[in-house]
């Protein structure tokens, strides 16, 4: 059962006294209040304004990656909106029933990104979430934005080159396969590409990226980067 | 006899022992010894065989075999020593003669001695495991005569000297050599080998080493090979005449090694006379000789083949990348065929049809032909030329020959699907313009292509032929029905093409002249009347028309033009001058086609039935066109339409390339799906290999393209990556 903070407990008590409801129901009602606070006046969903307000309340920048983690918990289907179901799923999963709780859970959500397994899930979730509804692929700009966000956490040294390469050479949407394989690539292939296997069935875009790095003499740079970091 | 009583005649056994004379053995031996002396001194006639035999027999019987045997050895030995001396004494050339004679005598003597000592040979000797008489005679001869130091060295020297003399052209006594040689063999193969053959081979090696060095400095390749061949044959002949047969392979090995193997590379690469020069100058005899000689040494043919292959590849590569050559595709292909003929001839007549050479030739052709991506187009153009005019008046067999040769080149193509595309285009033009020399030849080629590539390759092509035939029938039906009402108007001939069998055409617009429209409508109605549910669209960019034109001074000509050109010209029945716009509007012909059309009507010498103002080369929107009253031509029929297939311009080529690439994508995907459906799970490299195998009869798929298709199929959820191993793919039912 949730540990209720003092002021919180008071509120709940208050609620229970006024309405005569059980603790569980009281908590549900508090969650519903939260929802009501953020939901759009015209539809039964939380839209951009609501999300902005939420971010304000929990003192988190809307661009902060923690919002992605939150959306993952909610199993949100698309960015910039939460359905009622999704909102409640998220609250439930995180054990949140008040703003205070919400704020408390932020550091926890950040820490989840450090977990290898969870990061992978969040990363792969991000694709579906960030793409347009009804599209199969992710628009390049959005993808780049997401990658920069995600790899700031995970520290993949080649991320900037990757984004540059895409803008120079590809200019098309990113497929799901490419998205998920990129994480594999970042995880398994070292920055000097010494263990890159050309026969490794990497998506062709990644093969082209390697070619691009070789052509532009970036590999040796990357090598010296890793050498430095070892010192 | 008288009847007197006689004393009984009794035979009594010997009552006394027969005393064997103690000196009996010695006495008997002396008799035999004497006989041996006499035999060796050629006095055998005085001897009684029977008596001698009996003596020998008795000695053995009375257990004096040992004495007899050792006596024989001693006697023979001393005689042979004497013989040996006499041989040694012989001077110079007489040495061999003497040796040979003495040997013959010795053999005769031994024969006689053996006959006399037959009993000992058959009983005492086997029992005591001693050497039989005949063999003893040989061994003694060997040890006492041949291996006496003086004789041995002299014999070897003289034999080798004789061979040397013969090699430098002198005549020697071969019979004598043969006898000596046989003698050595009789003495035992090791005697022949150690006393003669070994040294013979050594000396020969030195001889040929020197000679080959000399030749290689002074002769060109062809001459050298002739000399080597001659020497080789000489040695073979030498062996057959006076050496043991087993020596043949050994001496030929020596010659092969010294004369050929050691100089292999230098010979083949020899400037101005080596292998390449022989090929270029078609020196069949020299090439044949080289093949026969080099076949005898390890890696000889490998060397020849490799040099030939790299030459063919280099010259082939030059040919297909030479821009001058590529200007005329028909000539280019003819050149390829001539080249192939040339090499085929070399392989059949000089290289005894060696399969490995044939394979090397094939792989070389495959290599360089595919260096030029236009090869498929050019081959199709070549065929087009042949089927349009080249094969006119040629016998059926010769037609088959030409087509078979073309098929041979076709097999070398890696991009057969590109060929198919062009072939279809060119065939369409031929069929529609009625310009094919022989329908049998066309069909024959289709059959060959079908045999080579399967039904799928040619089914559409056959569809085209069917359409032509069906159209004929349709026209007959149409004439029969409407014969009367169309008799006055222009003569219409329609070919109905099934979309899908024919090369895809862009959709064109064009307003046909009124005179034609009526007719066309009639046909359309007729056709749709008998084929409900179909849609017809006039392909105005593909038709032709024959117009009867009368010019200024009354000269009449028949103009053979394209449909577009007809539309343009018909306008001039109602006006003598028209601006570009005034032509464009009523005809609605697309701009680029119209410009090309007007160009061919107004700007080509000898075909300018229209005049243009201004007289510039290119057609501008602002130009004006006039009917050329003053047009003349020495021909009644003037052909203006461009119908013949031509080498594509660069941009057109690019376009075709793109279309081919586009066509390949679904084929690759279909192959991937087929494979994955059967295998369910397969790793990346194996998919690439399988796909390549499945498609190789049409084209060589690019592994990168295959990868992209796999990713596309993943996106469309036909396949997925295995969760555990990212190199594995699974088929999603």
TrEMBL record, chain A:
<feature type="domain" description="DCUN1">
    <location>
        <begin position="26"/>
        <end position="214"/>
    </location>
</feature>
<dbReference type="Pfam" id="PF03556">
    <property type="entry name" value="Cullin_binding"/>
</dbReference>
<comment type="function">
    <text>Neddylation of cullins play an essential role in the regulation of SCF-type complexes activity.</text>
</comment>
<dbReference type="InterPro" id="IPR014764">
    <property type="entry name" value="DCN-prot"/>
</dbReference>
<dbReference type="Pfam" id="PF14555">
    <property type="entry name" value="UBA_4"/>
</dbReference>
<dbReference type="InterPro" id="IPR005176">
    <property type="entry name" value="PONY_dom"/>
</dbReference>
<protein>
    <recommendedName>
        <fullName>Defective in cullin neddylation protein</fullName>
    </recommendedName>
</protein>
<dbReference type="InterPro" id="IPR042460">
    <property type="entry name" value="DCN1-like_PONY"/>
</dbReference>
Automatic annotation (TrEMBL), chain B:
<dbReference type="Pfam" id="PF10557">
    <property type="entry name" value="Cullin_Nedd8"/>
</dbReference>
<dbReference type="InterPro" id="IPR059120">
    <property type="entry name" value="Cullin-like_AB"/>
</dbReference>
<dbReference type="InterPro" id="IPR045093">
    <property type="entry name" value="Cullin"/>
</dbReference>
<dbReference type="InterPro" id="IPR036388">
    <property type="entry name" value="WH-like_DNA-bd_sf"/>
</dbReference>
<comment type="similarity">
    <text>Belongs to the cullin family.</text>
</comment>
<dbReference type="InterPro" id="IPR001373">
    <property type="entry name" value="Cullin_N"/>
</dbReference>
<dbReference type="InterPro" id="IPR036390">
    <property type="entry name" value="WH_DNA-bd_sf"/>
</dbReference>
<feature type="domain" description="Cullin family profile">
    <location>
        <begin position="374"/>
        <end position="602"/>
    </location>
</feature>
<dbReference type="InterPro" id="IPR036317">
    <property type="entry name" value="Cullin_homology_sf"/>
</dbReference>
<dbReference type="InterPro" id="IPR016158">
    <property type="entry name" value="Cullin_homology"/>
</dbReference>
<dbReference type="Pfam" id="PF00888">
    <property type="entry name" value="Cullin"/>
</dbReference>
<dbReference type="Pfam" id="PF26557">
    <property type="entry name" value="Cullin_AB"/>
</dbReference>
<dbReference type="InterPro" id="IPR016159">
    <property type="entry name" value="Cullin_repeat-like_dom_sf"/>
</dbReference>
<dbReference type="InterPro" id="IPR019559">
    <property type="entry name" value="Cullin_neddylation_domain"/>
</dbReference>
<protein>
    <recommendedName>
        <fullName>Cullin family profile domain-containing protein</fullName>
    </recommendedName>
</protein>
């Amino acid at each position: 059962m949730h540990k209720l903070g003092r002021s919180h407990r008071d509120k709940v008590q208050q609620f229970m006294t006024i309405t005569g409801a059980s603790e569980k129901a009281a908590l549900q009602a508090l969650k519903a209040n939260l929802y009501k606070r953020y939901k759009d006046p015209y539809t039964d969903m939380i839209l951009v304004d609501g999300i902005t307000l939420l971010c304000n309340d929990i003192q988190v920048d809307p661009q902060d990656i923690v919002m992605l983690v939150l959306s993952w918990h909610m199993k949100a289907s698309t960015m910039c909106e939460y359905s009622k179901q999704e909102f409640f799923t998220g609250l439930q999963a995180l054990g949140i029933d008040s703003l205070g709780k919400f704020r408390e859970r932020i550091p926890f959500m950040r820490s989840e990104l450090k977990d290898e397994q969870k990061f992978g899930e969040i990363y792969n979730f991000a694709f579906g979430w960030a793409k347009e509804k009804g599209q199969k692929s992710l628009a390049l700009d959005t993808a780049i934005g997401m990658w920069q966000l995600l790899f700031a956490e995970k520290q993949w040294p080649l991320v900037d080159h990757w984004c540059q390469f895409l803008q120079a050479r590809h200019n098309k949407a990113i497929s799901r396969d490419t998205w998920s394989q990129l994480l594999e690539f970042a995880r398994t292939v070292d920055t000097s590409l010494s263990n890159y296997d050309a026969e490794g069935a990497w998506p062709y875009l990644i093969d082209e990226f390697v070619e691009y790095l070789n052509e532009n003499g970036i590999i040796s740079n990357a090598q010296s980067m890793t050498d430095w970091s070892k010192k | 006899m008288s009847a007197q009583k006689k004393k009984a005649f009794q035979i009594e056994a010997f009552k006394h022992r027969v005393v064997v004379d103690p000196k009996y053995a010695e006495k008997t031996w002396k008799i035999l010894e004497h006989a041996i002396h006499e035999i060796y001194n050629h006095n055998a006639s005085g001897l009684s065989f029977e008596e001698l035999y009996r003596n020998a027999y008795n000695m053995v019987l009375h257990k004096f075999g040992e004495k007899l045997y050792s006596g024989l050895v001693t006697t023979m030995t001393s005689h042979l020593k004497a013989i040996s001396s006499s041989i040694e004494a012989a001077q110079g050339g007489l040495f061999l003669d003497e040796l040979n004679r003495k040997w013959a005598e010795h053999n005769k003597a031994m024969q006689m001695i053996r006959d006399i000592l037959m009993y000992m040979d058959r009983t005492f000797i086997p029992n005591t495991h001693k050497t039989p008489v005949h063999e003893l005679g040989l061994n003694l001869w060997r040890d006492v005569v041949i291996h006496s130091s003086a004789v041995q060295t002299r014999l070897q020297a003289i034999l080798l000297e004789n061979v040397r003399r013969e090699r430098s052209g002198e005549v020697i006594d071969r019979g004598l050599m043969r006898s000596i040689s046989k003698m050595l063999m009789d003495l035992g193969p090791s005697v022949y080998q150690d006393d003669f053959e070994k040294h013979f081979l050594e000396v020969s090696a030195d001889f040929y080493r020197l000679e080959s060095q000399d030749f290689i400095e002074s002769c060109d390749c062809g001459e050298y090979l002739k000399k080597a061949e001659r020497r080789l044959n000489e040695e073979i002949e030498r062996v057959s005449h006076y050496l043991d047969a087993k020596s043949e392979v050994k001496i030929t090995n020596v010659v092969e090694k010294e004369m050929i193997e050691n100089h292999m590379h230098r010979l083949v690469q020899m400037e101005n006379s080596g292998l390449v020069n022989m090929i270029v100058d078609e020196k069949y005899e020299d090439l044949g000789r080289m093949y026969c000689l080099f076949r005898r040494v390890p890696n000889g043919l490998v060397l020849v083949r490799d040099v030939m292959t790299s030459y063919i590849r280099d010259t082939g590569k030059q040919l297909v990348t030479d821009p001058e050559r590529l200007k005329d595709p028909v000539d280019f292909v003819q050149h390829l065929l001539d080249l192939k003929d040339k090499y085929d001839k070399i392989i059949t007549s000089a290289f005894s049809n060696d399969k490995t050479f044939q394979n090397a030739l094939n792989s070389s052709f495959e290599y360089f032909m595919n260096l030029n991506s236009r090869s498929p187009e050019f081959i199709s153009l070549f065929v087009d030329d042949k089927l349009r005019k080249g094969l006119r008046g040629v016998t059926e067999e010769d037609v088959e020959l030409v087509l078979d040769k073309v098929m041979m080149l076709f097999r070398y193509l890696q991009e057969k699907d590109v060929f198919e595309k062009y072939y279809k285009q060119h065939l369409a033009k031929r069929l529609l313009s009625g310009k094919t020399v022989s329908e049998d030849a066309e069909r024959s080629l289709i059959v060959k292509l079908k045999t080579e590539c399967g039904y799928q390759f040619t089914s559409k092509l056959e569809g085209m032929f069917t359409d032509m035939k069906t159209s004929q029938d349709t026209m007959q039906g149409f004439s029969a029905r409407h014969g009367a009402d169309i008799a006055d108007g222009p003569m219409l001939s329609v070919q109905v093409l099934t979309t899908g069998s024919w090369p895809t055409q862009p959709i064109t617009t064009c307003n046909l002249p009124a005179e034609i429209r009526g007719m066309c409508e009639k046909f359309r109605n007729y056709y749709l009347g008998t084929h409900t549910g179909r849609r017809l669209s006039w392909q105005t960019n593909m038709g032709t028309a024959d117009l009867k034109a009368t010019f200024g001074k009354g000269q009449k000509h028949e103009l053979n033009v394209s449909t577009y050109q007809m539309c343009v010209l018909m306008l001039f029945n109602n006006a003598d001058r028209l601006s570009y716009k005034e032509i464009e509007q009523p005809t609605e012909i697309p701009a680029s086609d119209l410009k090309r059309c007007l160009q061919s009507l107004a700007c080509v010498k000898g075909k300018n039935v229209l005049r243009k103002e201004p007289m510039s080369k290119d057609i501008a929107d602002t130009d004006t066109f006039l009917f050329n009253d003053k047009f003349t031509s020495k021909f009644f029929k003037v052909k203006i339409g461009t119908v013949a297939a031509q080498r594509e311009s660069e941009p057109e080529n690019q376009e075709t390339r793109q279309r081919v690439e586009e066509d390949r994508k679904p084929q690759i995907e279909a192959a991937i799906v087929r494979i994955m459906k059967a295998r369910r799970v397969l790793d990346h490299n194996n998919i690439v290999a399988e796909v390549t195998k499945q498609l190789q009869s049409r084209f060589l798929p690019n592994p990168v393209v295959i990868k992209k298709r796999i990713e596309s199929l993943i996106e469309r959820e036909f396949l997925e990556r295995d969760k555990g191993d990212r190199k594995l793919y699974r088929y999603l039912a």
